[in-house]
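Throughout this review, each integer encodes one residue's backbone shape. One record appears below.

===
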Amino acid sequence: MSENDSSPVAPDTDRTSLAPTGAEARVSSPALVRSTIRRAEREARRAAAPRIRPLRAAGTLAAVAALIAGVAVPAYAAIRSEGTAVTIHDVAADQAQSLVVASEVEKPKIAGSNYSATTPEEIAQARAEKAAAERAREQAEAAAAAAAAAASAAAAAPATASVAPQTYAAPAASGSVVYPLSPGSYTVGQSLGAGRGHQGLDLLAPTGTPIYAIADGVVSYSGYSGAYGNLVTFNSTVDGAAVEVRNAHMSTIAVSAGQAVSAGEIIGYVGSTGRSTAPHLHIEIRVNGGIVDPLYWLP
């Protein structure tokens, strides 16, 4: 045997004696081995499979069917009831309201005269008559209101007997300006700014003392005027300046609006009408629209 020979067989051994014979040859065949394995697996599965008993299987199946019926049938019925369609009539029936009318209620009787106008001309005439009646009513109300205001003014300004002007001395004068009261017939009271909103001069004098126009001019207002009481306002021009004079709280008025007056002419008499606490003349003088103090402007 050479050094390179790795075979374990001895040189003197017969190789034919190593070939498989009989059962050994059958076992070593690959196809036979696989067939044997499959047959053994089938026998093992058959031996492990449970044996089905017909009566027990039928009872189990019946119990399962009963359980399914007991659960499925009520559920199906519930689903059917929930899916029932609701109509508009059903909703309206739930929301319906009722009205009960008492038997004592009577229908108003409509007079046929209310519908006497049947033609456009008659309707227009009826509307015109209604409008005329409405205007007449408004005029009557306005007249009643004016009469009430006049009565109130008369009550607030009681008439007093005037005193003859000749019993008084002539008022003082300086140029074209005359003092509004006779000397010695008055005492000086509040002047400009003496009280809140006081814009003139108060000259205290007995009721009925004559009041004179301080300059030539034209009467712009003559009548009752709220807090001023009986008021005479006239406009004049003195030394080229526009002068407005207001004489307030008179007992009676001797001139009318639009009348021209002369300096020293009687325009009224001292009183206590309007917002006044005692007989006096309240005189305001405005020169070119600005208020001046009569105490220093008058002569």
User: Anything to note?
Assistant: Residues 1-21, 23-27, 160-166 have pLDDT under 50 and may be disordered. The first helix runs from residue 23 to 27.
